[in-house]
TrEMBL record:
Residues 88-108, 241-391, 422-444 are annotated as: Disordered. One of its GO terms (cellular component) is Golgi membrane. It comes from the Eukaryota. The gene is LOC109690368. This is Golgi integral membrane protein 4. Residues 89-108, 252-281, 293-311, 323-332, 338-354, 424-436 have a biased composition (Basic and acidic residues).
């Protein structure tokens, strides 16, 4: 509607100008037409005014709408500007963080390269040290195996010597059987001598009852017979002293034989170790005749040697067990030194035991000056046998304690090695986990 207003205004002006300049004197019809036109013009003016008012209203509304849009756009622009400033500040912060992270990454890279080089150097150094230790351990193992081979060879030599000693022991047993046979002969001779002594006692008692034999001739020389010396008191006294000496010798021989029987019976019942049995057997001939001590000294030495070798055999068996353990577990040189010291202590104890046995043999082989009763001799022999048994038991307990101590030390050493291996494995695993975590952090 607003677009037709200028055209309408132009037509009205044209019409008015035309009416003014070209209109003749108005006739009545023209007057009506003019009034009609004026009415239409007035109507048009009213419409134009109304349209103008509407246009003003529209203009005001449009202005308000424009102002409102402008305010909205300004507020939106200010909001966008604020958001832009915030994003710009965030961008600056992120840029700064990025630079800081780049700096940290560079420093961590330098630290990683430095630690990697340090660990690599330490690894190479540890590898060299372990290789040196491994070479030393191989050398010690070779030396220990060589020494073990030599010890085995010595053990075999001692075993062959032990077999020879066992053969000698068998020979000595056969000699002992021969001595038992001779002892039976001595027993029979002793019984015959006891009957003669009984007859002699009866004869002496009958001679003592006759007083006429005491008043005859003086004594004859000592080489006369008993019937010739009995005619004088001096000869009778000489014969009596001689008979008393013979009786004492016979009684002493009988006591010695009884003691020998008691010792042989006790040894058969007790059944001690072979060296102790041989010592007990060879003590009796020395007590039976003190003059035979010197010829039987080699046999006593053989008994002592046999006793010593038996002890050495036991020691070597234990040493063989220890060597077997050493071959299985490859002990250290300190353990070998400690075992060598223990073997030396065992040998010292064996020497002490041999010294006691030798002293007992020599004490039993000495000539008997103070004659003791068979009961005292039996008590003495029982005491010596108890002492030997006690020393043998003590030596066995000492060896058993040493063996148990070695086993405990070996088990403790194995446990320590297992703990060390476990700790090293855990340490390596922890280091591996730490390295992997560091790599993951660096990759992130």
């Amino acid at each position: 509607m607003y677009c037709f207003l200028p055209v309408l205004k132009i037509d009205i002006n044209f019409i008015v100008s035309k009416v003014k300049f070209n209109f003749p004197p108005p006739p009545p019809v023209v007057y009506e037409h003019r009034s009609r036109l004026e009415k239409s013009l007035q109507k048009e003016r009213l419409e134009h005014k109304k349209a103008k008012e509407d246009f003003l209203v529209y203009k005001l509304e449009a202005q308000e709408t424009l102002n409102k849009g402008r305010q909205d756009s300004n507020s939106r622009y200010s909001a966008l500007n604020v958001q832009h400033q915030m994003l710009k500040s965030q961008h600056e912060e992120l840029k700064k963080q990025h630079s800081d992270l780049e700096e940290d990454h560079r420093k961590q890279g330098e630290d990683f390269t430095r630690t990697f080089n340090d660990h690599k150097q330490k690894y190479l150094q540890l590898q060299q040290e372990k290789e040196q230790e491994l070479s030393k351990l191989k050398e010690t193992i070779y030396n220990l195996r060589e020494e073990n081979r030599q010890l085995r060879k010595a053990h075999q030599d001692i075993h062959t010597q032990l077999q020879d000693v066992k053969q000698q022991h068998k020979n000595l047993l056969s000699e002992h059987e021969q001595l038992v046979v001779t002892l039976e002969d001595h027993k029979s001779a002793l019984a015959a001598a006891q009957t003669q002594v009984a007859e002699y006692k009866q004869l002496k008692e009958t001679l003592n009852r006759i007083p006429s034999f005491r008043k005859f001739e003086p004594a004859e020389p000592q080489n006369v017979t008993f019937t010739q010396m009995a005619h004088s008191p001096q000869g009778y006294n000489t014969a009596r002293e001689k008979s008393v000496g013979e009786l004492q010798e016979l009684s002493r021989n009988s006591e010695v034989r009884q003691k020998h029987e008691a010792m042989s019976r006790r040894t058969e019942e007790a059944k001690p170790s072979p060296p102790t049995h041989k010592e007990a057997e060879f003590q009796t001939p020395a007590e039976q005749n003190p003059q035979e001590v010197e010829p039987r000294e080699p046999e006593e030495h053989q008994v002592e040697e046999e006793h010593r070798k038996a002890l050495e055999e036991e020691e070597m068996e234990q040493v063989g067990q220890a060597e077997h353990l050493e071959e299985e577990h490859d002990p250290s040189p300190e353990e070998q030194d400690r075992e060598w010291k223990e073997q030396q202590e065992q040998k010292e104890a064996a020497r002490l035991l041999e010294g006691h046995a030798q002293a007992e043999v020599y004490s039993s082989a000495r000539p008997v000056t103070n004659f003791r009763s068979p009961y005292e001799e039996q008590l003495e022999q029982q005491r010596l046998a108890a002492r030997r048994d006690e020393e043998a038991q003590r030596l066995w307990e000492h060896q058993e304690a040493l063996h148990q101590q070695r086993l405990q030390e070996h088990l403790l050493r194995q446990q320590q090695q297992q703990l060390l291996v476990r700790e090293t494995a855990q340490r390596k695993q922890a280091e591996h986990e730490e390295g992997r975590q560091q790599q993951q952090k660096q990759l992130r």
